[in-house]
Amino acid sequence: MIRVAVVGTGGIAGACHLPALRAEAHRAEVVAVADVDLGRAWRFAREHGIPRAYSSLSELLQRDRPDLVHLCTPPGVHAVQAIECLKSGAWVWIEKPACRSLAEWDAITAAEGPGYASVVSQHRFGSGALHLKEIAPLLGRPLVAQCVTTWFRDHDYFTVPWRGRFRTEGGGPTVGHAIHQIDVMLSILGDWAEVSATTATLDRDVEYEDVAMATVRFTTGALASVVTSLLSRREESYLRFDFTDATVELRHLYGYRNENWTATTDLWQPPDDRPSSHEAQLGALLDAYQKDERPPMSARQGRQALELATGIYASAHRRRPVTRAELTPDDPFYHRLDGGAWTS
């Protein structure tokens, strides 16, 4: 059995991670949880039949020696916690956003061995996205794409202490919400070359944007528009891919099945109907663990969406197009998405 620990017992742990782990109960066993609030940790443990609970990640790692850690904590502590898990020898699966900057992701990756770090990107793993990736080379050249995340988060959403600030959350909806749709777009279209973006804070009391718009040019020459909002009363997640020989579209909100896709080609015939979910990605992660090979959404693959998000912030701040090649350790945005330096 693969020994699993869950760190952070907020909403995402109970709603998404525990159901996914229950589906893999034949090969994965949750042995412990940790949360800064020990009482909450124990309530979570009792609710889900988990034998041990801790207020300290370090103590959990030392006492239980898990094989895999699910990090469900706020983004501001992901990098430090992921590196600690990796140094203990554990693999780590990190909720999005994986960290606050490219610098932090590269530090996480540098700490790998023998364990690996992977980021939650469940929408890549539904049968629709997997099928589109498989047949995309048969649809002709990619020409135009639309990547839309128009969601709604009210003012109360941002009263959680770690939300609304670059230092504790890393960034706004571009990196925290739209990153799911951005990631699927990148899985189909590959590397981007240049981005031109505008961000604005129109109605929420936050340090970062609540609306963003960007135009992305890919190395293939394809162009994409990326629209992100947390102010949209009618919520939708929308992706459109126009190839020379077909158009494929996806409309959903927080998760999709095959019925959410449409296509203008007879080649669109997904072999099964697996919803996008933590369960779908966790299965692939555990397969990699059992084979002792790098899991999906680690290293460069796990970096892709964060890199484009970084380009969007840099372009909006500089009011000019930004190339992917610019985002090196010499660039302030490599270290922080508002272009500043972390303060205590």
Structure write-up:
By secondary structure, the chain is α/β, with parallel strands linked by helices. The protein folds into two domains: 2-121, 3-Layer(aba) Sandwich (Rossmann fold), CATH 3.40.50.720; 123-293 and 302-335, Dihydrodipicolinate Reductase, domain 2 (2-Layer Sandwich), CATH 3.30.360.10. 34% of the residues lie in helices and 25% in strands. The protein contains twelve helices and 14 strands. The chain has helices at 11-23, 38-48, 57-64, 78-87, 102-110, 127-135, 166-169, 173-176, 179-189, 278-291, 299-318, 332-335; strands at 2-7, 28-34, 52-54, 68-71, 91-94, 117-119, 142-152, 192-200, 211-218, 223-229, 231-243, 247-252, 261-263, 322-323. The strands form two sheets. The protein has an eight-stranded mixed β-sheet with strand order 13-12-11-7-10-9-8-14. Strands 3-2-1-4-5-6 form a six-stranded parallel β-sheet, sandwiched between helices. Strand 2, helix 2 and strand 3 (52-54) form a beta-alpha-beta unit. Helix 4 (78-87) runs parallel beside helix 5 (102-110) and helix 9 crosses helix 11 (299-318). The protein is globular.
Strands, helices and their partners?
Blueprint: E1 2-7, H1 11-23, E2 28-34, H2 38-48, E3 52-54, H3 57-64, E4 68-71, H4 78-87, E5 91-94, H5 102-110, E6 117-119, H6 127-135, E7 142-152, H7 166-169, H8 173-176, H9 179-189, E8 192-200, E9 211-218, E10 223-229, E11 231-243, E12 247-252, E13 261-263, H10 278-291, H11 299-318, E14 322-323, H12 332-335
Parallel strand pairs: 1-2, 1-4, 2-3, 4-5, 5-6, 7-10
Antiparallel strand pairs: 7-11, 8-9, 8-14, 9-10, 11-12, 12-13
Helix pairs in contact: 1-10, 4-5, 5-11, 9-11
Organism: Herbidospora galbida
Domain GFO/IDH/MocA-like oxidoreductase: 139-246
GO molecular function, one term: nucleotide binding
